Amino acid sequence: MIDKKLLLEISALKLAGKIEKLNDEQMNQYEQLLVSFIEGFPESEQKIKDAVEAKNKESTAALLEEMCATLEKIQAIDLASECREFINALKNFDYEQEKIEAFVTVFLGSAAMLSIDIQMAKYLEKKTQTAFIAKKNEAVPKKNPDEKTILAVDDAAISLTMLKKSLQGEPYKLVCVNSGESALQFLKTNDPDLFILDIEMPKMNGYELAERIKENGHEAPIIFLTGNATKRYLMRAIQAGASDFIVKPIDKKYLTYKIYKHLFLQNA
Q: In this predicted model, what pLDDT tens digit does every residue of 220-262 receive, in sequence order?
């Protein structure tokens, strides 16, 4: 059974004052709802993307409605409310395709991050779980970064550009390379404080690189960039040493929080 305290730390789930009152049977039923959400999300996500690509507004609205109902059942109230507002507007106004695509991209990214946070709470070892649950709204303490270094590895130049743009002005050094081989070369003479690794890369994927990083004695946290929220991907990443995940496309506020969490909050 998932620890109630860990679920309370997932900010997208509005459980305060509710989950504490659930008995074991009710908690089991709620956990089944969570499992149903995370297992069904990849298929639902793809159906919504297909409907948007086909420019089928009726189908898009219907599929979003189904996901809203699921989100409400698991108490992701704010996310469901945002979705319902969009659905109502979509039904009543002639929205441009670009606006529909923009909303769906952001919405599905938030839902994917929720799925990942739930899976992290469920599948990580209990002794490490608490440090890995995202709390987007928690205040970040102001601390001297002491020239912290982050190594980002992604074969896609646009992803590295987005990282640089999102972290512009932040008080640490971001080093970007485009392959696992280049990362390992950098690590011969450097020991970063944090790694951000893309999973899907040629020659050496993110899982393999993470394993090499650990084998070479580097102990810094590893955050994986992923566009896939399936259990198979997450379990493979956890086995490779993942500390956390960021869903593509990158959300600046979420990315900034995740970095501060692993550079500073864990040892606060």
A: 999 998 877 788 888 888 888 888 888 887 888 888 888 988 8
* Amino acid, res. 150: I
CA–CA distances in Å: residue 61 to residues 52, 58, 143, 207, 248: 10, 5, 45, 36, 23
List residues bridging with 246 in a β-sheet.
Answer: 225
Alpha-carbon distance of 206 to 202, in angstroms, equals 9
Whether the bond into 249 is cis, omega within 30 of 0:
yes
The 3-state DSSP class for residue 131 equals helix
**C-beta atoms surrounding 125 within 10 Å:** 7
140-195 residue pLDDT tens? 444 444 679 999 999 999 889 989 998 888 888 999 999 999 999 999 999 999 99
- Name the pTM for this structure: 0.77
- Residue 190 amino acid letter: N
- Name the residue ranges covered by the structural domains of the chain: 4-128, 138-267
| Helix ranges, the chain (H) | 4-8, 24-53, 57-73, 77-92, 97-123, 126-129, 157-166, 180-187, 206-215, 231-240, 252-263
Q: Look up the CATH superfamily of 138-267.
A: Response regulator (3.40.50.2300)
Residue-averaged pLDDT of the chain:
87
Closest CA to 115 of 81, 67, 163, 162: 67
Residue whose pair of structure tokens reads 């970040």 in the numeric block: 140
- Tell me the C-alpha to C-alpha distance, in Å, between residue 64 and each of 51, 52, 68: 10, 11, 6
Question: Span 80-91, mean pLDDT?
Answer: 92
Two tokens, residue 105:
């991209």
